[in-house]
Amino acid sequence: MNSEVETTNPQNEDSDVASDLREKGKSAVNENTFTDVLREATADVLKKKIQEIKEDVLGHVNGRINDMMLEIQKKIEVPIAKNGEFLYSSNKYRDKRESTKSDTLGDKEFLERNSLFTDLFSISHIRTVYNLFMVIFIILLSNTVASDITESGTIRVGTDTILMCFEKFPTCMYIWSLMQTSTLGVYVGFILWAYQRLRFLPKSFIRKFWDYGWLSAFISYQILFIVFPAKAVLDTNLGIGCKLIVTMEQIRMIMKSYAFVRSAASRFLSYKPHSETPQPSGPKFSQFLYFLFAPTLVYRDEYPRTKRIRWMVVIQNFIEVGLALFNLTFIMECLVLPVYSVSEIQPLERKWFVKNIINSSIPAILFFFTGHYLLLHAWMNAWAEMLRFADRLFYKDWWNSTTYHTYYRTWNVVVHDWLYTYIYKDMYEIVVPHTRVLAATAVFLTSAIVHEYIISFAFGFFYPVMFVLFIVIGFPMFFIRKIVTSNLLMWLTWSIGNSIMFCLYPIEFYARINCPPHSNYYFDLFIPRSWSCQEKFNDLIVP
């Protein structure tokens, strides 16, 4: 039995060994398979993870680059105001909304934005230009103080000139208040016309009579508004500064009242009683009153408004108005009046005239730039801040102009918007459809006549130097866009043009003081005395 047992154990052992080997082989195969699967799964996970990391990194980098580019673009085009007073659009300095119709022009668009100088002066490099003008102001102030001490022993600092310019200021304000009060009557007349005409049949004779009657009354009012203030200026013998206030305010109120009637009347004229369009409502008196003082000449029922009034900004702008006014006085006293006050004892030779035109170019351009800053930046921004008027695009970068076509559109945006909206646009769309040349000609003639009107009544005589410069030089240059494209040439023409006015107007001004008038009143009013005064003066001094 032992032998049988011994013979059978080796076989069992072999079978056990074989089965063990098979199991080990299977386990080895399974282990290898599992390892391969694990390796493949790990590789896929790693690839996906790397891809996700790559995408995250690229997305973060791209987002950061986009943020940086947007930030740079905002700093270049649209600087962000402190405390977030304003909300800006991507194209800050656009001023016209694109028209949806092919045969019409775009309308004026009001946006929330700062004046250009406000944004530029936040840049330290541009702020240096402001500091340069302050240095010029200090130098002229020092020169005036030194002249006062040496000549009279007292320091007057330009106050004599300012008092002379604003002589009879209370009378000036009295005339202004009467003008402003009469302008309020435009609203009353408009509301009476607008709501009463809705009661008449659309094509009835009564409605036509009512419309043309009120139109005639409004035109008559505009004419009388020109005549009476002009007569008051001549009769009261105001100072030059007061004359400028009355005439400029007269023109401003005429433009305001016309803009209000022209803009608000269209909604009533286009209304059809039996259509689905609701009956129009007239502007509120508060809206009209706000428009009278808002720093714009284009009427809207609503304008973009700021959240609050920054009174420190108001004070700063009025201080700049005062400093600019004194700067203009110093320029006149130091650089202009000493030369031309002796013009009537100085023979008006061609050499003397050419020499002084060249010498006057520097004070003329200083006067030109300072006057622009006073009226279109400091004064306008002070009122805009007090009225929370958010659109402060009163001018554009006219100093970078390379053509007169660009200059006239950027120098005074407030007046340009009125001329574009109520003369150019109406001429182009209604009077002479699709004729830009005639529309531009009407704008130029209107602008030239109004500018000459203001200058003539301010000085008290008619000497159409500015009108000639407008029509003879400015008008042709407006249509030359491709031949003359030089910013240097623009500055030269500005300097020469202003220096010519700085020569001719003071010469005639002192001739009106020192020379006897012509025997005929109207001849004396329209013919410059400086043309004949030299001959009379020479006859007196020649034995």
Describe the structure in your own words.
This protein is mainly alpha-helical and 543 residues long. Helix content is 72%, strand content 1%. It has helices at 2-77, 116-120, 124-152, 159-165, 169-197, 205-236, 240-269, 285-293, 311-340, 350-359, 361-386, 404-410, 413-431, 436-459, 465-478, 487-514, 521-526, 530-541, and strands at residues 96-97, 107-108. The N and C termini lie far apart (179 Å).
State the gist of this model.
This protein has 543 residues and is an all-alpha fold. Helices cover 72% and strands 1% of the residues. It is globular.
Strand sequence of the main sheet, in spatial order? 1-2
Helix tally? 18
Helical proportion, percent range: over 70%
| Euclidean distance between termini CA atoms | 179 Å
Give the C-alpha Rg.
39 Å
C-alpha geometry = globular
Model regions low in confidence, pLDDT < 50 over at least 5 residues = 1-11, 72-90, 536-543
Q: Give the SSE string.
A: HEEHHHHHHHHHHHHHHHHH
Number of strands: 2
Question: Helix and strand layout, with pairings?
Answer:
Layout: H1 2-77, E1 96-97, E2 107-108, H2 116-120, H3 124-152, H4 159-165, H5 169-197, H6 205-236, H7 240-269, H8 285-293, H9 311-340, H10 350-359, H11 361-386, H12 404-410, H13 413-431, H14 436-459, H15 465-478, H16 487-514, H17 521-526, H18 530-541
Antiparallel strand pairs: 1-2
Helix pairs in contact: 3-9, 5-6, 5-7, 6-7, 7-14, 9-11, 10-16, 11-16, 13-14, 14-15
Name the features.
single chain, disordered C terminus, globular, mainly alpha, 2 strands, 18 helices, 543 residues
